[in-house]
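Subject: two folds for Thursday's group meeting

Dear M.,

Sorry for the delay on this. The cluster queue was jammed most of the week, so I only got both jobs back this morning. I'm pasting them in the order they finished. Each block is the input sequence followed by the predicted structure tokens. Could you check whether the formatting survives your parser before we put anything on slides? The first protein is the one we discussed after the seminar.
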Amino acid sequence: MQNGRTALITGGTGGLGVAVVEAFVADGWRVVTPVRAGSVDKLPKGAVPVVADLTDETEVTTAVSTAVAAGSPGSPLRAVINLVGGFASGPLIADAPYAGLEAQLAANLRPTYLVTQAALPHLVDAGGGSIVCLSSRTAVAPFPGGSAYAISKAAVLAFAASVALEYRSRNVRCNTVLPSVIDTPANRAAMPDADFAKWVRPDEIAPTILFLASDASAPTSGAQIPVYGRA
């Protein structure tokens, strides 16, 4: 049974995104998830796919409009969950080309900015809602060779804080979650010698995101929530 609300969830085919989509669907949300062409079959059952490149402003606008239309009139857009992003490491700053930073900003900040920007008028018109952005512990605790990733994820924190400030009087909240290393197959393959038991699992992060989208967290906006596991 649907709860009369629509959530737009980006990155829904990723290691974290699948768990988040499943949690929202199980909670009765109507879930719309932008995906790249050829990835529709990777979405969990119950999600409504819309093919879009979230670095393209026109396609983002179309995807958000589709989410709004999919929920109209009985399930208005009430939540935007920004999970899409990317990771890259490289040399220390003196040897790191600026293009590497631009690439990480394009992967981590640009989609979050464009999707949120396009969704805000709809959330306001619907009477308010919740935006959740995905940052990283690296944004507040960088590691050598990870400056571009850390800067891009710190930019997400600044962006979310700005949204929370500018839209609090319009009943739109914006919060951020900061995972440590997420226990996904891709991360296990990249770091085979790590202690996986210390990493945070996607199904441990998803309930926090669901809570931040729900009325139960109504007083909370501008928060930066650590979800580190034991890492």
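Second protein, same layout:
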Amino acid sequence: MRRAIFPGSFDPLTLGHYDIIKRGITLFDELVIAIGINADKKYMFSLEERTKFIKEAFKDEPKIKVVTYEGLTVDFCKKIGADFILRGLRNPADFEFEKAIAHTNRKLSEIETVFLLTSSGKSYISSSIVRDVIRNGGDYTGLVPDTVIVKS
């Protein structure tokens, strides 16, 4: 079985993430959306909310599992038997950052990193931009899946 993880904080899940996940499930038998827990990071959305956003967005996709994890991503891969890490790239800066992590992961283990370019029209979307729009009362509905839209 070709199992991959798509790690991230998903604070919140964006249409960019959604795009990579939908395209990633065509490449793997199982895609584990792995929500990393970092005690030093201040999140806008709780772990429970972030998990719910993702589970609801992919509730009809049997090839997707949503889990949380702490520690090194490569250690988590070993623990669940994943041979691949899926990552999305929006721009050249993402590539340079992700390349360094991929090389480090490869040095620490036999995990392969698979990169997908974000689809045209979604490369400007990031969780930090979405959080800023939300904090400032802007319309973020075109940046996230419907499951993330908080009803007032």
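Two things I noticed about the second structure. The mean pLDDT is 94. The first strand starts at residue 3 and ends at 8.

Cheers,
T.
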